[in-house]
Design goal:
By secondary structure, the chain is of the alpha/beta class. It has 14 helices and eleven strands. The strands form three sheets. A six-stranded parallel sheet has the order 3-2-1-4-5-6, with helices on both faces. Strands 7-8-9 form a three-stranded antiparallel sheet, covered by helices on one side. Helix 1 crosses helix 6 and helix 6 crosses helix 7.
Length: 384
């Protein structure tokens, strides 16, 4: 696997988990880091989920190591001696019980950055309890902001806790700490909690609350479907368009192309008492034409209107297609690595393949293991 990209030369050990920790590792691998994924025995066997189609596992080298064996733990510690980073996504205490907590690994390699991805964090009353994205964003206050007026909170799948406030935040933390380690020679552990990350993502909303322009009543604000000029509407064919005409000049352009005069109540753009009736009028106007017709009407304008596409439709849309926002790798349509770099463009991702041997032998030879040692580890069931 040829490693190119802004992070080429970086080496990270990842203990296989689900969701946010693999997303962090994927982002690092996308941009050239050598990410070695440590998987438990049986993890690559066929099952209800096809591991070869796991986008979050792309572009890794992988080893199957039984960490219940002392020799398996020793393998991970030896790999970490030459690593820049280590990623794990288990409840507090799990890695310590395996003998792979921050203390021994940082003692072995003082420059190592040890990334810990959890929902509740390493401390606090809930730290050792189970949870998922919906629970973390509920306790951070974010979930209460999401949904329409008079309706219950609606989770945005698991994008805010797991990925935005989890994996992406850990990727930032890993790189910040690795920069520090390279400058000072001192590594550290990172406590990345999805409850903290989701709270961080609400920073702008906190500003609006402090300024008195955000209400705790869900679905009554500018950005939460309260406003008639920031919402989705149903078209004649049952498809939807999105409207985000916030600024006055964009709002004026939107109304003009919609065929509505900017007068009367429509001239009172930010009068919240007028929003419900204005929303009804826009809904009736939008329902008169199909999504395709509206796309033609708003094409090339600054009205801030875009069709609401399904995940199946998005890769074929003209803008996405020209930019190559999506790509197909190993028969799987998936997002291309982002962001884009003018000098250090990454290689195309590679989907995981378990049809052939793992990278175990090659990786262990690179850190000095003999052929005899590798065969002995295989014979004992520690390594595959």
């Amino acid at each position: 696997m040829q490693l190119t990209g802004a992070l080429a030369g970086l080496k990270v050990i990842e203990i296989a988990a689900i969701g946010p920790a693999p997303f962090c590792a994927m982002m690092l691998a996308d941009h050239g880091a050598e990410v070695i994924r440590i998987m438990p025995p049986g993890a690559a066997h066929p099952g209800p989920l096809d591991s070869s189609k796991d986008v979050l596992a792309r572009s890794r080298k992988f080893m199957i190591v039984d960490l219940k064996h002392a020799a398996g733990v020793r393998i991970v510690r030896d790999l970490c001696l030459s690593a820049d980073g280590f990623i794990e996504g288990f409840r507090p205490g799990v890695m310590e019980r395996l003998g792979l907590g921050p203390e021994p690994l940082l003692a072995d390699n003082p420059r190592l950055v040890y990334g810990r991805m959890t929902g509740w964090g390493q401390t606090g009353p809930r730290a050792r309890t189970a949870g998922h994205d919906i629970n973390y964003i509920a306790l951070s206050g974010v979930l209460d902001c999401l949904g329409r007026a008079g309706d219950k909170p609606t989770p945005p799948v698991n994008l805010i806790g797991d990925f935005g406030g989890g994996g992406m935040l850990l990727a930032f933390g890993m790189l910040a700490a690795i920069l520090h380690a390279r400058q000072t020679g001192r590594g550290q552990a990172i406590d990345c909690a999805m409850i903290d990350g989701s709270a961080l993502l609400s920073s702008m909303i906190c500003s609006l609350v402090a300024q008195g322009v955000w209400s705790d009543r869900r679905g009554t604000n500018t950005l939460d479907t309260g406003a008639h000029f920031y919402d989705t509407y149903v078209c004649a064919d049952g498809a939807h368009i999105s409207i985000g005409a916030i600024e006055p000049k964009f709002y004026a352009e939107f109304l003009r192309r919609l065929g509505i005069e900017q007068s009367g109540d429509f001239a009172r753009q930010h009068d919240r008492t007028a929003w419900p009736s204005l929303k009804d009028k826009i809904a009736r106007a939008v329902a008169a034409k199909t999504r395709r017709q509206w796309c033609e009407i708003f094409d090339g304008s600054d009205a801030c209107v875009a069709p609401v596409l399904s995940l199946a439709e998005a890769p074929r849309e003209a803008h996405n297609a020209e930019r190559g926002t999506f790509m197909e790798v190993g028969g799987v349509v998936q997002p291309r690595p982002a962001p884009r770099f003018s000098v250090t463009a990454p290689a195309d991702p590679i989907m995981p393949s378990f049809a052939h041997a793992t990278d175990s032998a090659q990786l262990l030879r690179a850190i000095g293991y003999s052929e005899q040692s590798i065969e002995s580890l295989r014979a004992s069931g520690t390594l595959r």
